[in-house]
């Protein structure tokens, strides 16, 4: 009864103040709280498209959740599939955070010892919350010219020149890995969704003595039939991807093709070849093999993405620095390695968080608690804060949510509420402040999960970096201007 009475307050405010097309009350920017409609967090059967459409300058492609209704894979049984449990998500997410902490401290997975194999349900749990894009792999000669297939046009499978000039592939965006890879034939399905290098006239397998092969470093996996082999452990689900290191044409959209894109052609995957929602990983890390590095001469070593507020909306992925970035983004410097200190991995993107505010008031936390820096990661779902910082945030949040009934903790989510019968929830505003006075307010959908829990968790202590997860990145265009040495944040971009 108490929670139901509290629920009336924000609803009345919405009526009195009026609401904007985006669901934000007219004077919401000037209030200490924000109102979350819990029904907006529930699954939806239809894709509503872009909430905010990016400028049509040819440098972007739609972004979506692999299991969401905006995904090309969302049909038939996929549309009726039961969503994975929160417990599975948190377990897999914690494995990702450990991976990021190893990367940030200069550690790596021991490739020689193989990788654990998580149950398929756990893999799908993690994939469900990721950002993915559809790209086209390869070309096939069509008389005197090359043709690129649209995503929706079916491919002939008769071996003739009318066959598939390119294969549309759904790839997860991963800022914590270096080697892009895609599933290659064979697979168990009659209509195989995987890329077939034998049918692409521009495919090239790198010889073992090639420069590209020698540059693989820890990802090299020997030589088979004089062809260079790679091996990576997926930082998304822990599975192994291995096969031939190759190159081919990658078409991101009609105006952006990379003619000799280097990638792993995965033929040894532990995937069952079931035609699931993703076909590979688009590595966006800082290593020499990533998409970022391979396109640096053309696009200035920069990219950005924006994850939508709801799973049934589209966001976008963009290559290059957007026009007007200097004044449209809150910019903060990317951290460099500390002289004389441990050498962090070149893969991850680290910035310096200096404060967290609740309703505009900074938490009473010493600067030392932020000293390990913050990794901004596209795959981690729930943001992890240093233990001291999280404790202060939790106390401030609980104080301002005192009108709602508390609920038992759910695994590492220890601040939960019983919101039975409640639709509109009045939440305190939370903002992260980075070096350079770059203040980034978290969208209301990134504060509270559908289960009623605060969408933050704690590291074991203050010695490990914070990890900014994708739940807290919703609606924010996150710019990785690696060439300029900065990271930018633009609110309400999608």
From TrEMBL:
Disulfide bonds join 187-192. Residues 156-490 form the Peptidase A1 domain. InterPro entries: Aspartic_peptidase_A1, PEPTIDASE_A1, Peptidase_aspartic_dom_sf, TAXi_C, TAXi_N. Belongs to the peptidase A1 family. Pfam families: TAXi_C, TAXi_N. This is Peptidase A1 domain-containing protein. Keywords: Disulfide bond, Signal. Residues 144-167 are annotated as: Disordered. It comes from the Eukaryota. The active site is at residues 174, 377. Residues 1-25 form the signal peptide.
């Amino acid at each position: 009864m108490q929670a139901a009475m509290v629920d009336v307050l924000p609803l009345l405010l919405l009526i009195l103040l009026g609401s904007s097309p985006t669901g934000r009350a007219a004077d919401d920017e000037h209030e200490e709280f924000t109102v979350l409609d819990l029904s907006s967090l529930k699954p939806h059967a239809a894709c509503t498209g872009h909430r905010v459409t990016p400028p049509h300058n040819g440098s972007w492609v739609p972004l979506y959740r692999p299991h969401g209704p905006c995904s090309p894979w969302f049909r038939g049984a996929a549309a009726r599939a039961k969503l994975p449990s929160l417990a599975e998500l948190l377990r897999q997410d914690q494995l990702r955070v450990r991976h990021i902490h190893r990367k940030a401290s200069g550690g790596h997975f021991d490739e020689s010892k193989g990788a654990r194999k998580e149950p398929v349900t756990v893999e799908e749990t993690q994939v469900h919350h990721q950002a993915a894009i559809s790209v086209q792999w390869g070309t096939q000669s069509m008389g005197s010219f090359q043709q690129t297939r649209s995503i929706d046009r079916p491919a002939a499978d008769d071996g003739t020149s009318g066959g598939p000039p390119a294969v549309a592939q759904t790839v997860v965006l991963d800022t914590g890995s270096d080697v892009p890879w895609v599933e290659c034939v064979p697979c168990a399905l009659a209509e195989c969704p995987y890329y077939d290098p034998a049918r692409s006239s521009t495919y090239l397998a790198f010889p073992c003595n090639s420069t590209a092969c020698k540059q693989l470093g820890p990802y090299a996996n020997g030589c088979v039939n004089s062809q260079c082999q790679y091996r990576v452990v997926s930082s998304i689900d822990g599975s192994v991807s291995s096969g031939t290191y190759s190159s081919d044409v990658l078409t991101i959209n009609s105006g952006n093709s990379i003619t000799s894109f280097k990638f792993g052609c995965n033929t040894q995957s532990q995937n069952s070849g079931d035609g699931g929602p993703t076909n590979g990983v688009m590595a966006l890390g800082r290593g020499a093999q990533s998409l970022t590095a391979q396109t640096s001469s053309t696009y200035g070593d920069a990219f950005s993405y924006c994850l939508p507020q709801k799973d049934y909306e589209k966001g976008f992925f963009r290559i290059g620095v957007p026009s007007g970035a200097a004044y449209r983004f809150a910019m903060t410097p990317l951290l460099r390695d500390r002289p004389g200190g441990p050498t962090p991995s070149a893969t991850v993107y680290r910035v310096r968080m200096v404060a967290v505010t609740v309703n505009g008031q900074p938490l009473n936390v010493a600067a030392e608690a932020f000293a390990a820096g913050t990794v901004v990661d596209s795959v981690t779902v729930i943001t992890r804060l240093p233990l001291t910082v999280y404790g202060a945030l939790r106390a401030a949040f609980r104080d301002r949510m005192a009108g709602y009934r508390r609920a038992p903790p759910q695994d590492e989510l220890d601040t939960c509420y019983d919101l039975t019968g409640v639709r509109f929830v009045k939440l305190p505003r939370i903002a992260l402040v980075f070096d350079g006075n770059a203040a980034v307010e978290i969208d209301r959908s990134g504060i509270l999960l559908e289960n009623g829990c605060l969408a933050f968790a704690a590291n074991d202590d203050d010695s490990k970096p914070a990890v900014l997860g994708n739940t807290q990145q919703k609606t924010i265009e996150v710019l990785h201007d690696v060439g300029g040495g900065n990271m930018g944040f633009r609110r309400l971009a999608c």
